[in-house]
Design brief:
Elements: H1 18-25, H2 49-55, H3 61-66, H4 71-81, H5 86-99
Length: about 100
């Protein structure tokens, strides 16, 4: 994760707040957390196996549990089992993760 320099906080040099500094610099952007593209899904994965089975009925509960919460593994399985492109399988997995806040 890349860390960017943070503008000074109130009470810091010059008593400029973060918002004032960002506006002054024209650097006003909202940070939106991204869904995980790779890596391990949160610990909530096991709680949502039933929902995943509804979405991807061609998988058994055991198969989904065996992914170990690995996003890349799940994406590959969805791609293969549903004969989808990598992009489409990734989109479907991301949508599921966002829907269930994983």
């Amino acid at each position: 994760m890349n860390k960017q320099a943070q503008p000074p906080v109130a009470g810091g040099p010059g008593n400029i707040t973060r918002n004032e500094t960002a506006q002054h610099l024209g650097n006003v952007t909202a940070r939106v957390p991204e869904a995980p593209v790779a890596g391990v899904i949160s610990a909530k994965w096991k709680k949502h196996i039933g929902s995943a089975r509804i979405v991807w009925s061609r998988f058994s509960e055991e198969e989904l549990l065996n992914t170990g919460g690995q996003v890349d593994t799940l994406t590959g399985m969805v791609q293969e089992r549903y004969a989808l492109s990598v992009e489409e399988a990734g989109r479907r997995v991301r949508n599921f993760l966002q829907q269930y806040k994983l």
